[in-house]
Amino acid sequence: MSEKKIYLFTRFERLWHWTQAVLIILLLITGFEIHGTYSLFGYKRAVTIHNFCGITWIILFFLFVFWLFVTGEWKQYIPTSKKMGEVILFYSYGIFKGRSHPFHKSREHKHNPLQRIVYLILASFFLPIQILSGIYYYTYHMWPKMGGFAIFSSINPVAFIHTLFAFIILQFLIIHIYMTTTGETLFSHIKSMFTGWEKVEEPSN
Amino acid sequence: MIIILSPNAWAVQGKKEEDLLITADHSKFKELKGDFRDGKDLTNKCLKCHNLAAIQVKKTFHWTWRDKSGLKGKGAYSLNNFCISTNFMHDEECTSCHIGWKGKMHGINCLKCHLQTKEDIASDMKDYIFFSGSKDKDSQEMAQDIKNTILDNIVKVGPPTRRNCGQCHFKGGGGDGVKHGDLDTSLINPKRDLDVHMGVDGGNFSCVRCHTTIKHKIAGRYYSHPAVKERKSLVQDDMASKITCVACHTNTPHKESILNDHTNKVACQACHIPEFARKKPTEMWWDWSTAGRTKNGKQIRKMGPLGKPIYTTIRGSKKWAKNVVPEYYWYNGTMGSLTVKDKIDPSHEVAIRWPIGSPKDKNSRIYPFKIHRGKQPYDKKYHTLLPPLLSVEDGFWLTLDWQKALKHGCEIMGIPYSGEYGFVRTSFAFPITHMVAPKEMAVRCIECHTQNGRLKHIKGVYIPGRDRFGILDNLAWTIILLTLIGVLMHGLGRIIFNKRRS
């Protein structure tokens, strides 16, 4: 097996990823302050930061979706079962034995099958729900005035959904950050997310 | 040039001087130079020119003290937990606040609301009659002096000032600040920090600036009649009553849209009157059951730490408080109330007056209240609240005898009394709407958006920061904790196996 460096993440991708990371972390911190879990920024400032980050995130999310379709990168998120078993086995067993990762990254296949399915669910289900419930939460008082759009009679179920998915995203974040340490070195994955370049092993044919 | 006015700027425009309304100098009127010996003479002079005034006034609640049904009102069967009842206006102490000369008996006292000076014309006229009756030269001079004082003062009339309204409304319940909590004599010349609208260094508003008055009918809530049926701004209707905040400030008065989002559920007063009784104490508790005690045959009067009596023989025990945080309830602008005819359940605290509203009603808002509590007599057999006679013959204040006071009190009102009385705990609610603080003193977000905050008892609305989703919160934090433990174990496993291999 030989090693080589490939340019895996374009400048936009990296900018998008880290901006989203900052926004999501700030949204979680301020969101749980608004939920009453602790006090940090002060309630009013937490609300202001949360709303600012939320709106910024919506814009960023649409830019990302646009980028996905223009570049054809959406194909990276088509789920596959190929090597899925091996990848799961690797993380639950092989990694302790010092075995090498069964999936080999390339420009055409950036994500392993586990990443594909998790990112797809996240980007097409969890995040849109969080964004939509956030928008509804932010504008709920306007809906009755605009007529016919009062889907929920009270903000209660919307707040429930928004809180539930905040927990799900928090859980993703914890696992996601942990997984970055499973590269060649502890910080090699994080480094490549900054530089764009990733060291990959080429399977010896 | 186009000037875009913010909602606040609309409100600021309201600060016009009151003397713009005055078109006559009463000191030039010959009619007002007479020899006035009683209130009626004086009122008749007023009515000669203001010939609709009496007709208008006599239709108002200020005059009748009872509603159209004849059931509610302090001149009817309503009662409270202060001096309890006026016994159909037989109790003279109570009627000292009526807008007539000696209650309703000698006609309307125009000066009560319109005299711009502090002079007590009624007592001046009594003195004048006394001194002018004597032939003695000194007395005659005295009489002349008093007459001049009367004549000098009665021409100084105009729209009601804060002092005019305040002589009754600031002293309701028998003394300064007793009743309302948001009304006391500190509002005669308040600073802006006590009331941003009435403050002499603020808007310097008189009461009628907001209590829009049409044909002597002064806007405001009384008993179950709301102050307005719908909240309208002057932008929508320039003849709208200015009794609501919305009239001048609109529904979206804040720069921050997040604060404007509150106005469909939270009344302006809830945030902008953080505490009431901020300058003078207000009474919070009145226990009639302890009244009547004497020491060596003498009446007792014990003063409390706030400079107010905490026990008097004729009234019983009282508690006072300053800087009181209100209680909050859903309120649609109407109050429910009991009369002496209503049955009560003496095993619980009896609400004599309470706010009506619900989270489902779109006209209801979360609103601040002073709740005055106490103990007062009730009929143990008929389960009704009883109206004791107080200040007149057979009254409790003269006899210290409950049986006499209750029996005669009921007789006057034509209601049954079994002869068995006890004392029951009661509550009486006052909407808090005055003493609006400057915006920098408004209630902060965290005072409600927290678990044990000001709104901890409010139901029917989701309040972020206060409310939890029981199962979700507990379960989710457990899962998050397990996730953290999981990744830590996984990481630890990697380290251990890595070490073992090397």
Description:
- The complex is a heterodimer of chains A (205) and B (502).
- Chain A is mainly alpha-helical and 205 residues long.
- Chain A has a single domain (2-202), classed as Fumarate Reductase Cytochrome B subunit (Up-down Bundle), CATH 1.20.950.
- Chain A is built from seven helices and two strands, in the order βαααααααβ.
- Chain A has a two-stranded antiparallel ribbon.
- In chain B, a hairpin with a 5-residue loop joins strand 6 and strand 7 (309-312).
- The radius of gyration of chain B is 29 Å and the shape is globular.
- Among the domains of chain B are: 25-57 and 98-168, no CATH class; 271-447, no CATH class.
- In chain B, strands 3, 6, 7, 8, 9, 10, 11, 12, 13 and 14 form a ten-stranded mixed beta sheet that branches. Chain B has a two-stranded antiparallel ribbon with strand order 1-2.
- Chain B starts with 6 loop residues before the first helix and ends with a helix.
- Chain B is an alpha+beta fold and 502 residues long.
- The interface between A and B is medium-sized, with 30 and 32 residues.
Provide key terms for this protein:
heterodimer, A: 205 residues, mainly alpha, Fumarate Reductase Cytochrome B subunit, two-stranded antiparallel ribbon, 2 strands, elongated, B: 502 residues, alpha+beta, ten-stranded mixed beta sheet, 15 helices, 14% strand, disordered N terminus
